[in-house]
Design goal:
single chain, 252 residues, mainly alpha, TLCD, transmembrane helix, TLCD1 protein
Length: 252
């Protein structure tokens, strides 16, 4: 990647940050349920989740389209390249930067520290991909997780709003479990095996492999929380799953 293309990529990332800042303002106009309005600590979280939902829909469908349109990319995870995939990585990098700033500037760092760790990993990995032009296919595969995040975010919005229809939450609960396996656990497991078997553990390869293994641990932890919260509530310990104003766990 030449300097000109890197500068263009940086501009794309900056433009994505601006897009999500605008979406954040639009989220202020979305009507809030009584359960949110009555508890000020939930207002920021509600707005933040709406922006997260927008990113999940756009990035998840974009990742699916990129792989459907260019399935040959899957045969070259290290050096395969597509303009669509590159743009998607820039777009999502902008979201992670925006969300990090939103958490910090709204003094939610302590309650949202898990997001900050996740975002730091994603931003550092994506920046390395943008600079080198390598492993972009791996990033697109990882962004399939956003399909799962669509239903995960709906789950959290339903819990916050105290939706009067338990059937809606129940339906989303099972859909969420299925897509969690299909778009979060399966791509993650495939990439982990690929990196451990085929990627040299030096330089960028070592950095991305370490990042991937840490993400594996986080995803398994979130999955155990999801199972305890939605399917085995009797196994929750202490305050796990407790609804506290301002908290923004990846799974709660």
């Amino acid at each position: 990647m030449g300097p000109g293309w890197r500068a263009a990529s940086a501009a794309l990332v900056g433009g994505s940050v601006a897009i999500f800042a605008a979406l954040r303002r639009l989220a202020l106009a979305v009507p809030q349920p009584n359960a949110v309005r009555s508890r000020p600590g939930r207002v920021w979280r509600w707005r933040n989740l709406l922006v997260s939902f927008a990113h999940s829909v756009l990035a998840g469908l974009w990742a699916l389209f990129s792989l459907w349109h260019s399935p040959e990319l899957l045969s070259d995870i290290q050096d395969g390249y597509s303009v669509s995939g590159h743009l998607l990585v820039c777009f999502s990098s902008g979201y992670f930067i925006h969300d990090t700033l939103d958490i910090i500037f709204n003094h939610q760092s302590r309650s949202s520290w898990e997001y900050l760790v996740h975002h730091a990993m994603a931003i550092s990995a994506f920046v390395s991909l943008i600079i080198t032009g390598r492993f972009l296919v791996a990033a697109v595969l990882l962004l399939l997780v956003e399909v799962s995040n669509i239903f995960l975010t709906v789950r959290m919005l339903l819990k916050m709003s105290n939706v009067p229809s338990p059937a809606l939450y129940e339906a989303n609960k099972y859909i969420n479990l299925v897509v969690y396996f299909a778009f979060r656990l399966a791509p993650q497991a495939y990439l982990t095996c690929y990196f451990l078997r085929h990627v040299e553990l030096q330089g960028q390869g070592a950095f991305l492999t370490a990042n991937l293994l840490l993400l594996d641990a986080m995803i398994l932890m979130y999955f155990s929380r999801l199972l305890r919260s939605d399917f085995f509530p009797s196994l929750r310990k202490g305050s796990a799953g407790r609804d506290v104003d301002g908290e923004k766990f990846l799974i709660d």
